[in-house]
Design goal:
The chain is an alpha+beta fold. It is 52% helix and 16% strand. α2 runs parallel beside α6.
Length: 567
């Protein structure tokens, strides 16, 4: 080995340690860069020519620049991100839903229900007092208004969730396109190099982490450096191709508008098993819809049960004419025919109509309702004909829009009593509420305009508050449509369900955050830049570089000495 070869040893050392210093400098420069993965320069001796006493090396070289990363840990971290985002989204949504119902506030439904029934309690003691009747109408209006407000807020939250799903999907589609492009760049960059394209891979990992915030994904690296990305079992990125994501506006089984995530390539549905999208879909289709269903059930039960009692009572005034609120789609079908426009179906039974003349003489007539499915069941047409034919001085007709209209002859009025069939409430005759659920619940406009029609009595005797007493009893009565629960019990149970779901979501979020933080710490210990370690590496590489430079000076001096001898 000559002095020229000795210079080669120094040259390789200078080049290798200069590159190693640059790697350490790159790490230090990116200590605060999100998603940066620390790199390491691997040094190895260059083998040289063999001598009789052994082999002399030809210096040092950098064999590779490696990223300090664990792909298994990265995969677990992406899963943890998805779980955290999904749970956090559910928790936030439930907190918002809970605030909409405001269970501890002054205007929560429980308090308004209690105020309404308390006003009915006052009415039973003062049935003839106009002011007391006005309070009943006012508290009922406040209750129905609050129900409508909550429904509107739930719809607003649902629309907001749909818009957020659309925004996220648009961003996710952009990310998948960028990942596909980076796949091509990484494959090209690494095809002519022994090491990874670290900066490009860091960019791709950042995008994969962001995508995992939106969907639970799985990633499989392919030979050449590209990755395939899957949502569920469906591929969304393959090599340099993104299959694309989009949203479509559709109607669910309940007729509500939902934003559905689909693949652009084949229009197939995307199965979200984690991430923000799953959390949003669960919030919309489970938590939000459940509150809709509970609000509708509570409203429907309140309407029907109060109306059944009210329709069989009488107010301070009788009717001279009255038109039902319910529109029947086909007046020739039996009154208990489903989907015929009658929200609360009647049953076999009867009711009475009392017709009074100007002298105060009352004629009571029983009207029978036959809905047993045997023979000819009662239809709206047959009911109108029966009333006209058998109730003196009263005419019943079916209007063009399918409502039952009752008109007394001049000088006569009429009232109702003892309805065991529920047909009066079903057809909207002498009812307290109008509507069928939270969508359209309101106090009957007839009562709003004339509180004297509020049926607090079951007779025409002054001071009779017996029907108001029956109305008060509805509050604690077991209701079949609520699975045997009372209105108060159902409301309290619904609020408890929200609280339990919210608590569970909070616990799940906290657990997911702990896992995420633990995995993040593990990643940082492997991939993060430690300034102390880099400082030690800098000193080590600097000293090695200085040593190589001094070695080169020694060799140079030896060459100078040799040249002097030659002269």
């Amino acid at each position: 080995m000559g002095l020229t070869s000795a210079l080669g040893v120094g040259r390789t050392a200078l080049a290798a340690y200069q590159a190693a210093l640059q790697v350490a400098g790159q790490n230090i420069a990116n200590v605060a860069t999100p998603g940066y993965t620390r790199t390491r320069a691997d040094l190895s001796a260059i083998p040289g020519a063999g001598l009789s006493v052994g082999q002399l090396g030809r210096g040092v070289q950098i064999t590779s620049i490696r990223r300090s990363i664990s792909e298994t840990l990265q995969s677990r971290l992406r899963t943890a991100i998805s779980d955290k985002e999904s749970a956090g989204t559910e928790r936030n949504s439930l907190n918002r839903i809970e605030s909409l119902f405001d269970p501890l506030g002054d205007r929560n439904l429980g308090s308004l229900l209690s105020e309404f029934f308390a006003s009915l309690g006052d009415l039973q003691n003062n049935p003839d007092n106009i002011a007391t009747r006005g309070i009943v109408i006012s508290t009922a209006s406040s209750l129905t208004q609050r129900i409508g407000d909550i429904r509107g807020d739930l719809i607003g939250l649902r629309d907001e969730i749909n818009r957020e799903i659309e925004t996220i999907t648009l961003r996710a589609d952009q990310i998948t396109t960028q990942i596909a492009e980076l796949n091509g760049e990484i494959t090209l960059a690494e095809s002519g190099s022994a090491g990874p394209a670290a900066a490009l891979r860091d960019q791709r990992d950042q995008l994969l982490s962001e995508l995992s915030e939106y969907f639970a994904i799985s990633v499989r690296e392919q030979p050449g450096g590209a990755v395939n990305v899957y949502i569920g079992n469906e591929s969304v990125v393959q090599f340099g191709t993104s299959f694309g994501l989009k949203t479509t506006q559709e109607l669910d089984t309940n007729g509500l508008t939902i934003s559905v995530v689909r693949f652009q390539l084949n229009d197939g549905p995307v199965t979200a098993k984690g991430g923000l999208v799953e959390g949003l879909i669960t919030s919309r289709d489970v938590h939000n819809f459940s509150r809709f269903a509970e609000l509708d059930s509570l409203s429907g039960a309140l309407i029907h049960e109060i109306n059944k009692v009210h329709s069989g009572g009488r107010g301070l005034e009788d009717f001279s004419d009255l038109t039902g609120l319910t529109e029947v789609l086909d007046s020739s079908l039996a009154l208990n025919t489903p989907d015929n426009g009658i929200p609360f179906l009647p049953q076999t039974g009867s009711f009475f109509i009392d017709v009074k003349d100007s002298s105060g003489t009352v004629v009571r007539t029983q009207v029978n309702i036959d809905l047993d499915g045997i023979g000819a069941d009662t239809t709206l047409d047959s009911l109108a004909a029966d009333i006209t034919a058998n109730v003196p001085n009263l005419t019943a007709t079916v209007t063009a829009n399918g409502k039952l209209q009752l008109t007394a002859d001049n000088g006569f009025t009429f009232a109702f009593a003892d309805d065991t069939s529920g047909v009066l409430a079903s057809l909207g005759l002498n009812t307290f509420f109008a509507g069928k659920d939270s969508l359209d619940i309101e106090v009957n406009p007839l009562l709003v305009n004339n509180s004297a029609l509020l049926a607090a009595a079951q007779s025409d005797f002054a001071g009779d508050g017996s029907n108001a007493t029956a109305l008060v009893a509805v509050q604690d009565s077991a209701i079949a449509s609520l699975s045997g629960a009372s209105l108060n019990e159902f409301y309290n149970s619904a609020m408890a369900n929200i609280a339990v779901s919210s608590s569970a979501a909070t616990s799940a979020t906290e657990a997911a955050e702990i896992i995420f933080e633990s995995l993040t710490v593990q990643r940082e210990s492997i991939s993060g830049v430690n300034l102390d370690e880099e400082a030690v590496a800098l000193i080590s590489f600097q000293r090695a570089y200085e040593g190589a430079a001094r070695y080169m000076r020694v060799v140079d001096e030896m060459l100078q000495t040799l040249l002097t001898l030659v002269r």
